[in-house]
Every structure is written in structure tokens, then in C-alpha cells.
Amino acid sequence: MGIFDKIKGAIWGEAKAAPAPTQTTAATANPAPAPTPAPSATTAATSPATSAPAAPVDIASILDAAVKKSGQKLDWKHSIVDLMKALGMDASLSERKELAQELGYTGDAGDSAKMNIFLHKALLKKLADNGGKVPAELLD
């Protein structure tokens, strides 16, 4: 599992904590309408498929909550290090270099300031490309 997958997993894991009861309700709905299996089976199969992709993951609210939970003063909106720390991840230079490789960074990995700027922008864009709702001002 790569660094991006760990970040995505941490964010999407927080987002999926609320929709779990919806799946339980759909599973409960299947056995109840036993006399008419065709319509209820079609409805139950359509509902989860429609709700999963339609609800984008609100990246900002999840990261804001993670910062609050951490008890630290972290600026995830401008810092890749703070973003990773908010998620409880290792934000060491070696981890960020690995993430840079995953996200296609071609600059000098020795210039951590430039690499960090690239990482922050590229990470937020990739999260948006994978179904995350990222504030537009952070995608510039």
C-alpha cells in the first residue's frame, strides 16, 4: 500500500463511518418484501449503487475534524506535513519523498520546500479526482 492509498484510506475511512447504517437498512429491506421479490430486489440493488458515487467525500470537513481531534495547531490547507500529521501519519522527509514518487514529482527531491508545495497541490488534486470534494481555492 502506497502513501497516497494510506492518506485516501484515512480520509475515506472517516467519511464511511456515517453511511454504514444505510447499508444495514438496505439489507433489512430485502427480506421484508418477500411476497414481491422482483421489485424489491431491483430497488435494493439500485439504491446502494446510486448513493455510493453520488456522495463525494468532503475533504475539508474531514481534515478540519482531524486537526481538531489532534489537539495541535495544524494548517492542512497549506502544508503537506500538517495534512499528514492531522491524519496521524508519519510526515517524515522519507515518507514525503515516497509520496513524491507516487505522484510523479520530477523536481529535485533535495529541495524539500518545492517538493512540499508540489505534494500538497498534487495530493489535493488526486483526492478530488478520486471522488473527494476539495475547496476550489485549494486546487489552483
From TrEMBL:
Region feature (Disordered): 16-52
Bias-annotated ranges (Low complexity): 17-31, 39-52
Ranges for domain DUF3597: 3-135
Pfam families recorded: DUF3597
InterPro entries with a match to the protein in the record: DUF3597
TM spans (from-to): none
Name of protein: DUF3597 domain-containing protein
